[in-house]
Each structure stands twice: as C-alpha cells, then as structure tokens.
Amino acid sequence: MADSSANDPAPQDDAEPEASERAPRRSLTPRTKLILLVALVVVLLAAGAWYLRHRTYGRYFQETDDATIMADAVAISPKVNGYVQQVLVADNQDVVAGQPLVTIDARDYQAQVAQARAQIAQAEAGVENARASISEQDAAIAQAEAQLAAARSKAAHDAAEVARYTPLAATGAESRQQLAQLRLAAQQSADQVRESAASLEMQRRRVAGINAQVRQAQAQAEGGRAQLASAGVNLGATQLKAPIAGRIGNKTVNVGQFVQAGTRLMSLVPLDKIYVVANFKETQLALMRPGQPARIAVDALGGTEIDGRVASVSPGTGAQFSILPPQNATGNFTKIVQRVPVRITIDATPAARRLLVPGLSVTVTVDTRSAKNDLEHIKEQQEQLERKAR
Fold this sequence. Notes:
Elements: H1 30-56, E1 61-70, E2 74-76, E3 82-87, E4 94-95, E5 100-104, H2 107-171, H3 176-236, E6 239-241, E7 246-249, E8 258-259, E9 266-269, E10 275-281, E11 293-298, E12 304-313, E13 339-347, H4 350-353, E14 361-367, H5 374-389
Antiparallel strand pairs: 1-10, 1-14, 2-9, 3-5, 3-8, 4-7, 5-6, 7-9, 10-13, 11-12, 11-14, 12-13
Helix pairs in contact: 2-3
C-alpha cells in the first residue's frame, strides 16, 4: 500500500518578501549636495541678473514683428484721352524727376491749339475793325458838328432878316409877302438846326455802340487766349513725365492702347524715401516718443539690423481707420489689445537701400529709455490734481 503522504504538496520553506518592502534609499554624497547648491545659486543669480537688467534696461525696449517697409508710391495717370504713341520706360527701371515716361498721340490737341489761335486772330481783327469804325465815326461827328454850326448860322441870319423886315412891312415900306417868305425861311432854318443837332447826337451815341463792339471783340480775344492756354495744357499733357525720382513698377500700358484720363498706367516708387510702419500694441506705447532710436531687422537681409528713428505715432489705431470701424457699444464686447501704427524712418547705406523695397517684413525694436521718467511725472501730476479735487 502506497504511502498517502507521497501525494501531499511539498512544504514551502522560502516565503516571498512582502510587497511593502522597498530597497533602502541612498543618501546624497557631500559632493552631490555641493554641486546642487552651486547650481541653485547660479540659477538664482542668473534670475536676479535678468530681473535687474529687465527693470533697468530691457523693459524700455519695445519690439514688434508686425512691421512692413512702405513708400508713398505715385500712380502715373494721363490727364487727357488718346492712343499711346510711345512707352519710354520698362518695368523696374529707375527714373529721375522730369524724365518722359509715355507719349500720347497729340494731333487732336494740336488742332485745338490752332483753332484757339485762329479764334484769337479773328477777335483781334474785330477789335481793329471796331477801332477803325470809331475813327470814321469821329469824322462823321465832326461833319455833323459843322453842319449844325452852318444851320445855326443860317437860322440866325434868317431870324435877323425877319426882325429887320417886320417893322418895314408894318409901315408899308416892304411887302407883307416878302416878310412871309422870310419867316418861312427862318422856320426852315430852325428846323434844319434841330435836324442837325439830332443827327449829331445820333452820331455821338453811335460811338458808344462801337466801343461796346470793341469790348466784345476784346472779350472774345480773352476767351480765345483762355482756350489757347487750356489747349496748350492738354497738348503738354500728352507727354507724361516722372513727377519724382523713383523706380517703375506694375506697368500696364502698351503702345497703341487707348487710355482714358485718370487711368493708372504704372506706379512710381520713391525708393530713396522708404520708411517702416510698425504696428505696436497699445501696451507698448506708454514711453514711445518721436525721435527715439530704433533697430530694424530685415528678413530679406538675413536679419541684418539697420538704424532707424521714430518719426511719428498714428492719431488712431488701425481699426479706427478701417472701412468699418468697430462699434463696441453694440452686441457683446470682448476686449482685444489694439495696435497703433508707428512710422519709423530708415537710416541705411545706399547699398542696403537698393535691396529694400516696399512690402518687406521687418522686426522693429524701439529704445524708449529717453522717456522713462515721463510716467512718474504723469503720476505725480495726477496725484496733485486728485489732492486739489479733495
């Protein structure tokens, strides 16, 4: 019979260690503690140095990468209509002030100039003709005055004869028939005097009408001169010239093209007058003043920095000058930090300026240390006002 103990499981002599037991921690060596202490001191010193630099230096430097190189480009547009006869420049060509750019067919405007000159000549001829008529009228007036004088002389003689024959006819020394004939002649002479006087007055009044014709012809001549000046301006406008020095860009005009007055043909960019528009946050403007120095990092030059200076600060945020400015009084309001455009002049070498064109992105840093005492001064003034108000 087999022993029943043979089937019993063998007793476990070695028990597994409890899960709660852990390996004993190693204590830090003095060398490690010293390294950690030195590192902590270095970190604290670095943080203190950074904070001190920030308080005394770094916080006065305001930086933004929302900045672009700009230029006041001039749109070249014709003043008159016509077909383009010549295009004298090419894209990206540098031009000087007064250089011809485009020529428009001038034949129509030359004809207008000739027409205005003919009108002036006609009016001047009218003036001369009227002045000649005045000379003739002066002669006619002199003739009428002579006729009036002769009529008055004859009327006086006839009246004297009537006066002499009247007493003779009354005594019978002369016939009454003779006296009647003398009286009739005297009456006719008096009528002739009145007629001559009226004719003289008419001749004199005719001079005023001729003078009016002279003034009318002179006015027509002045109108012709004004038309000639206008036609001359239009004729001169058939050749478009560069108003400033710069570089041609975005040229859209070709020979044979019909252009309308006011149509943009090309743009002229004054690269010697470029500037930067940097959009700073409103929280960065407290100490920003015109004249403060700036550093401009240009992406196109591999981050090379050039000097600049704050020229002016915009009188409003960019949103205020948009087509639809925000109306915070309507709807729900969410406060958003606004940006204000600041104009920065560029002080760059000619070699660098040749690479700077409008539209390039830059990063601008402005040194505002020159105004670091302004905030304290403003606070003092405000406190004084509050004390007075109390």
